[in-house]
């Protein structure tokens, strides 16, 4: 469920937008002034803030700047009934995700919101790898590995090796391919790969890696 914060001192418009954005995948809260927005952001994990440009005390872009210091990953959409080149340039400068005129239909605004949130999901999917057969989750951004909800401390080579297998599940990888990925070169006489594999299997109790004699290794995924 996505959480959205709507910041607008126009009560009727805010409530209309809240109703349009509330469904089985999204829920929206409303605040009417910047101070309340800062408090709400501090106390909740919102995925997106939709703010009117013209607010009491500070404008929506300045609010976005302040909020990004608290929650750097939050998405921001600025809505305005009085668009100007200067305010649009300001929104670009402060990395606002979308600057949208309020005259746009609610359907257009909804699609901007949906696409922005879906884009975030795609990025998250690219930053994680998962094996169902071993219940292993790799977070590539945080450089962390979990198995059965337990975190494992892997060496850099072990992490690279596990990542390589989960990116190529059910595919036979040659010794040369693995060696180039781990070390940047291939020495057919070296047994370094075998040592790292043995350590990885032992450390995480992995049974899904099979040896393909004369070729290399394969991750067997259910």
UniProtKB/TrEMBL annotation:
Q: Where is the OmpR/PhoB-type domain?
A: 126-221
Q: Name one GO biological process term.
A: regulation of DNA-templated transcription
Q: Name one GO molecular function term.
A: phosphorelay response regulator activity
Is rRNA-binding among the key words of this record? no
InterPro entries assigned: CheY-like_superfamily (IPR011006), OmpR/PhoB-type_DNA-bd (IPR001867), Sig_transdc_resp-reg_receiver (IPR001789), WalR-like (IPR039420), WH-like_DNA-bd_sf (IPR036388)
- Please state what the protein is called: Response regulator transcription factor
Q: Which PROSITE patterns match?
A: OMPR_PHOB, RESPONSE_REGULATORY
| Domain named Response regulatory: residues | 3-117
Residue positions, PTM 4-aspartylphosphate: 52
Keyword GTP-binding assigned:
no
Q: Which residues bind DNA?
A: 126-221
- What keywords is this UniProt entry annotated with? DNA-binding, Phosphoprotein, Transcription, Transcription regulation, Two-component regulatory system
A GO CC term? cytosol
Q: Which Pfam families match?
A: Response_reg, Trans_reg_C
């Amino acid at each position: 469920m996505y959480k959205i914060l709507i910041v607008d001192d126009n009560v009727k418009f805010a409530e209309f937008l809240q109703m349009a954005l509330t469904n089985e995948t999204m829920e929206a809260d409303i605040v009417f002034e910047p101070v309340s927005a800062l408090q709400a952001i501090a106390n909740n994990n919102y995925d997106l803030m939709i703010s009117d440009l013209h607010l009491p005390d500070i404008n929506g872009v300045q609010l976005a700047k302040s909020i990004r210091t608290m929650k750097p990953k939050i998405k921001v959409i600025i809505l305005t009934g009085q668009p100007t080149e200067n305010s649009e340039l300001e929104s670009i400068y402060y990395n606002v995700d979308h600057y949208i005129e309020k005259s746009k239909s609610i359907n257009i605004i909804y699609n901007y919101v949906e696409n922005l949130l879906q884009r975030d999901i795609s990025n998250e999917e690219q930053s994680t790898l998962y094996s169902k057969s071993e219940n292993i989750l790799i977070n590539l951004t945080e450089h962390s590995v979990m198995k059965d909800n337990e975190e494992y401390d892997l060496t850099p080579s072990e992490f690279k090796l596990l990542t390589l297998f989960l990116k190529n599940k059910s595919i036979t990888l040659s010794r040369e391919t693995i060696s180039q990925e781990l070390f940047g070169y291939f020495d057919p006489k070296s047994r370094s790969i075998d040592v790292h594999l043995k350590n990885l299997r032992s450390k995480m109790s992995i049974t899904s890696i099979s040896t393909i004699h004369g070729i290399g290794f394969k991750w067997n995924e259910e």
